[in-house]
Amino acid sequence: MDLVRGGELFSKIAKGRLREDVARVYFQQLISAIDFCHSRDVYHRDLKPENLLLDEDGKLKVLSSNRL
Asked: Domain named Protein kinase: which ranges (predicted)?
């Protein structure tokens, strides 16, 4: 698992509306991540801003809610 220091996407949204270009980049990253998971028959079932983290470079990371 990666160490993600950018915080939750929820924190950015809570501060106010995102610029359209920024929101579009996050959305495209999210769709790519979901597509990657679905292509491997993995389904998240709990996607929400609190489960979407950002690294130092602003790249979106999907937090897994699976328990082993």
From this structure: 1-68
Boundaries of domain holding 48: 9-62
Instruction: Report CA 37 to chain centroid distance, whole Å.
Output: 13
Which residue is catalytic, options 2, 41, 46, 55? 46
Bridge partners of 16, per DSSP, are: none
Name the residue among 32, 31, 67, 30 with its Cα closest to residue 52.
30
Number of domains in the chain: 1
What is the C-alpha to C-alpha distance for residues 51 and 39, in angstroms, rounded to an integer? 20
pLDDT at position 2 over 90: no
Residue, of 9 and 65, whose pLDDT is higher: 9
- For the question of residue 55 being annotated catalytic, the response is no
